Amino acid sequence: MFGEPVKRVEDDRLLRGQGAYLDDLGHDALAAAFVRSPHAHARITGIDVSAAVDVPGLIAIYTYEDLTGRVAEPLPMLIPHPALTAPRTGFPLAADEVNYAGEPVVMVVAEDRYLAEDAAQAIVVDYEQLPAVVGIDAARAARHLVHPDVPGNIAAELVQSHGDAHAAISAAPHTLELDLSIERSASTPLEGRGVLARWDTESGRLRIWTSTQTSTGVRAAVAAKLELDLAGVDVITPDVGGGFGVKIVHPWPEEVLVPWAARLLGRPVKYTEDRAEHFVASAHERGQRHLVRVGFDDEGRVLGLDVRFWHDNGAYIPYGLIVPIITSTQLLGPYKPGAYRVEFTSLYTNTVIVTPYRGAGRPQGAFVMERTMDAIAASLRLDRTVVRERNFITPEEMPYDHGLIFQDGRPLVYDSGDYPAALAMLKALIEWDSFPARQAEARAQGRRLGIGLACYVEGTGVGPYEGAHVVVETSGKVKVATGLTSQGQGHQTVFAQIVADELGVPLGDVAVTTGDTRAFGYAVGTFASRAAVMSGSAVALAARATREKALRIAAAALEAAPADLEIVDGAVRVKGDPASAIGLGTVAVLANPLRYAFDEAARAATQFAAGSSDPQAPPVPAGESPGLEGREFFSPVRSTFASGMHAAIVETDPDTAEIKILRYCVVHDCGTLINPRIVAGQIHGGVAQGIGGALYERLAYDEAGQLRNASFMDFLMPYVSEMPQEIEIDHLQTPSPLNPLGIKGAGEAGVIPGAALFASAISDAEGFAITAMPISPSDLFELRQRDQPAQDTDSR
Amino acid sequence: MAEPALKDTDMKDSGLFDIVLVVNGTSYALAVPARRLLSDCLRHDLRLTGTHVGCEHGVCGACTVLIDGVAVRSCLMLAVSADNSSITTVEGLAGRDGKLSPVQQAFADCHGLQCGFCTPGFLTTITAALAEDPDPTPEQAREIIGGNLCRCTGYQNIVQAVLRAAELITQTR
User: Mutating which of A9, A15, A27, A193 best tests the B interface, going by the most B Cβ atoms within 10 A?
Assistant: First the structure.
């Protein structure tokens, strides 16, 4: 099964409309709606709910004043860091100041959502507006402050270096400086956030369903906020309609308030985020500006690299410095930078918070590094692939230590990879060497074609751990549980593939549960392309433990040595002797010595059964436990580094500056493939988001901090019409030495090189350097005017 | 949408309107407020939650249902306007024997879905289009799905699924 393009086991249910997403649950629940700040920065001077109290169906209205205990405290600072000297997080409901348009101020609970919205609309909040800080330039200028006690709007400053970059650049034969920027985008899953909570008054237990990327994270955070025992809180992740990073943030204000209100009211309460809310009340990413200085030799080898960048973290910083730390380390891609120094400043602005979106800081890093490589190539008149090749880390240099600290707090050490091989594959796939002739030919016909490429390395499978439980039921069916959550990646399929192989059972007999703290309580979450690496490895280890136990028990029954047994098609047998086979279901019966027979098969495990256990030994031998099951954890020493390279050919319209993608090629290395069909799907989706981020998607704030395009009419996500006819994929498989399956993460990769790739290809078509992304036809048109005001006439 | 929408005078004292919806072949008599969206009515009154709501402004297509065979965005329509209509939702696409429809089968064959949230809207949209023209070119296949958003798949496998569904339909004729 492992490595085969198995069809997904999730699909049948989802295709029949039998998925169960958050808003499909809790038909009996009360509905919550929120009054949100219309201003980016303001002081709350009064809240008048009098007009709302007569709205039919109203159950409750809560403002900050009503919050109790730890719910009234700021939301947790999830990932503290010594450099994060001015951490600020929001309150579940704004206390006296609002710091972004969309921040929750009042919570309304009513019989249904329509009525809750009616009441919310009748509530009047008075504000004293304060000057809004919007964008990196305004935040740096710090004429106004987001938080009055945070000077310079600076949340954090962090420097990392390896070698003396300033000296290396000064001594280099050639130097270049680049000023590069990238704008905000957002994960934008088709399903927004949502949470449903039931308080069981009789047992004093809380049960939460939430559309999250970490059920164990939500459980711990809500238990802490509501001052409940962890054991008294269950968190269940239902089907999730996409995450792409945004749903790793927890607890959201709503994730605290809905369970809090459910307990207070003794009735189930549900909140389903609507699309307009998702734009202004969840999270964004990507906004950064970089100044680069690079020194290099005559061959284009980088001798020193100095990167200074500013990161817009929005109004609060609950997720810490993860995004800029990833940018600052993963910027290096497959290259040896000589000496390297990177310094970033993370800045508060009066905008929605910034937390990881698929790629998580890497698209910006790849953009910066790849623009730098292209600039070196242009200045030396070298082929862009040649410059890259000369700077690659070679397979012989693996493991490669960059001398920096990665996002997991561990050394940035690449475990494996073969970048020269990948580049050779990519060049062959897109026919790089013959492109100049094609470009010249098109040019002669008045058409502008350009080719670009971009490389990246992605640290995947970050720790600290994941675990898994595998149990064989007496029916022979295998139940698998792992704690991290699924948002459409196909985990139920790939984990079942792993178990089917490890345990020797048919795929159809394996059922996998994810993201349910009742089934598995220890987990971290689904982010950083870690699910396959972490839970996949844990599942494999748990299946192996189960297999060993099955062999031990069957060996006693068959009077054979475990080493002489095999498991074939769900039955243990002496190697090569099908007649000796005992079904795993029977082994499961024998694994659990019984006093009471619950069915015919169970009789074999009861105390008076023929051939039951040795009367001189305990029925459960020392060191064993009842049941045919295994429970194991996987905790690698550090991340494993996947890599890839994309190339594209674009055509830009000489008149309208429309940008068309003629070809899109991918070489992808995520180590050993579990399911190539699913990996290809992940790449397709990532590429689509990369195209969106490069050419269409930007979150357009005005100076007052109003998000001007907070709808699908105005925030342009790609439809099929924006996608190339085909995404051509070649796989390279460089196994990871850091896990039992040799796998690396695949979830985010497709999106990472998007901005870098199109900047490269459009620059090639236009003959001038693109330094800011995304780029629209209007942007490109203006760049043409600036570059060569009279160019219009000669291109016709 | 054969019948005109209800008039104000049809409103009962409760502020509700009596309507009849025939959904996936079953007739439902309902009393709904005038402002109740068809999508909410299907999902929350009839508990047919296979129809999903992704944007509430008619752009993403996740809520698409078939009304008298025509693909309609149920988030842009009031339940009262659908009075007396025959509606097919994703729950009604499979055969009475439980067999997946050709379009559903094609999505399974081609890995045309990941998170599955937008999928019901694609299935209904494609079903309606293939009923009109069961033999689309690849370019037409792209046009058929041109108004539906998917954030997971990059559409490549959905285009393949349209073509595969057309094949399956042709084979069964």
Answer: A15
Q: Do β-strands A565-568 and A571-574 pair in parallel, antiparallel, or remain unpaired?
A: antiparallel
Q: Do A189 and B154 touch (CB under 8 A)?
A: no
Closest approach of chain A CAs to the CA of B53, in angstroms?
A: 8
Cβ atoms within 10 Å of A336's Cβ, excluding its own:
17
In chain B, where are the structural domains located?
Answer: 8-92, 102-172
Question: What is the SS3 assignment for A169?
Answer: helix
Closest CA to A409 of A342, A356, A459: A459
- CATH number for the domain whose boundaries are B102-172: 1.10.150.120
Question: How far is C-alpha A436 from the geometric centre of its chain's CA atoms?
Answer: 37
Query: Are B151 and A189 inside 8 Å of each other by CB?
Result: yes
Q: Is B152 within 8 Å of A720 when comparing Cβ atoms? A: no
Select from A191, A187, A103 the least CA-distant residue to A356: A187
Who among B51, B89, B157 is closest to A684 (CB)?
B157
Of the partner residues A11, A487, A723, the one whose CB lies closest to the CB of residue B107? A11
CB A728 within 8 A of CB B153: no
Q: Mean per-residue pLDDT for A80-85?
A: 96
**DSSP string covering A421-464, please?**
HHHHHHHHHHTTTTHHHHHHHHHHTT-EEEEEEEEEEEEES-SS
CB contact under 8 Å between B115 and A190, yes or no, is yes
Q: Does A23 contact B53 at a Cβ distance shorter than 8 Å?
A: yes
How far, in Å, CA of A181 to CA of A187, rounded?
Answer: 19
> Dihedral (C-alpha) B45, B49, B54, B57: value to the nearest 10 degrees?
-30
pLDDT value for A34: 98
Of A177, A173, A164, the residue nearest A337 (C-alpha): A164
- Cα–Cα nearest to A779, from A695, A671, A692, A666: A695
Calpha distance A218→A200 (Å, rounded): 18
- Picking from B55, B116, B159, the nearest residue to A720 by CB comes out as B159
Kindly write down the DSSP assignment for every residue of A573-638, as one continuous string.
Answer: EETT-GGG-EEHHHHHHHTS-BSS--STGGGGGBTTSTT-S-TTS-SS-TT--SSSEEEEEE--SS
Which residues from B are below 8 Å from A710, CB to CB? none
Q: Which B residues 64-103 touch A at CB under 8 Å?
A: 89-91, 93-94, 100
Using DSSP, state whether A722 is helix, strand or coil: helix
Closest alpha carbon within chain A to B112? A681
Q: Using CB atoms, pick whichever of A241, A678, A726 lies closest to residue B115.
A: A241
The CATH code belonging to domain B8-92 is: 3.10.20.30
Instruction: Render pLDDT for A739-775 as a digit per residue (tens, 0 to 9).
Output: 999 999 999 999 999 999 999 999 999 999 999 999 9
Beta-carbon separation of B56 and A688 below 8 A: no
Q: Establish whether domains B8-92 and B102-172 are of one fold.
A: no
Using a CB–CB cutoff of 8 Å, tell me whether B157 touches chain A: yes
With an 8 Å Cβ cutoff, are B150 and A727 in contact?
no
Query: In this model, does residue A793 exceed pLDDT 70?
Result: no
Q: Which has the closest alpha carbon to A195: A91, A266, A270, A136?
A: A270
* DSSP 8-class letter at A355: -
Domains, in order of start, for chain A: 11-130+187-281 (3.90.1170.50), 288-395+405-462+637-795 (3.30.365.10), 466-634 (3.30.365.10)
CA nearest to B62 within chain A: A190
Three-state SS string over B15-49 comes to CEEEEEEEECCEEEEEEEECCCEHHHHHHHHCCCC
- Strands A30-36 and A269-272: what pairing? parallel
Q: How far is A759 from chain B (nearest CA, A)?
A: 20
Q: Are A39 and A705 in contact (CB under 8 A)?
A: yes
Percent of residues, chain A, with pLDDT higher than 70: 99
- Give the ipTM: 0.96
DSSP A241-271: S--TTGGG--S-HHHHHHHHHHHHHTS-EEE
